[in-house]
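The methods section describes the discrete structure representation at length, but only in general terms. What matters is that the chain and its backbone geometry are given together, residue for residue. Nothing conveys this as quickly as seeing an actual entry. For illustration, here is how one protein appears when written out as sequence plus structure tokens:
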Amino acid sequence: QVELVESGGGLVQPGGSLRLSCAASGFTFREYSMSWHRQVPGKERELVAVITSSGGGRNYADFAKGRFTISRDNAKNTMYLQMNSLKPEDTAVYYCRRLGATTYWGRGTQVTVSS
């Protein structure tokens, strides 16, 4: 079955960096576009970034442009989100998602940006 497992979250000071990973299994990873999303309690889940199946196409939410980088390693069935210059408002649970006719979500990883 399809499984997406996020990791790499944690507590970081403002201005710091984190790299999130999403390990995928149960499907042919290289055939699907993938995305990162985030959610704060009481708010809707929002898109952070999208990457095409080959990794050649990437799009970012405005808040992520210039600070976050989405990437993937199809040989390792893993997607990444490098987050730099983190701000307190980036605090959220971050989820990865497999796109396509049927979408799947991971369980999320908590990112807390605080001094």
About this structure: The CA atoms of residues 72 and 79 lie 4 Å apart. The chain has a mean pLDDT of 97.
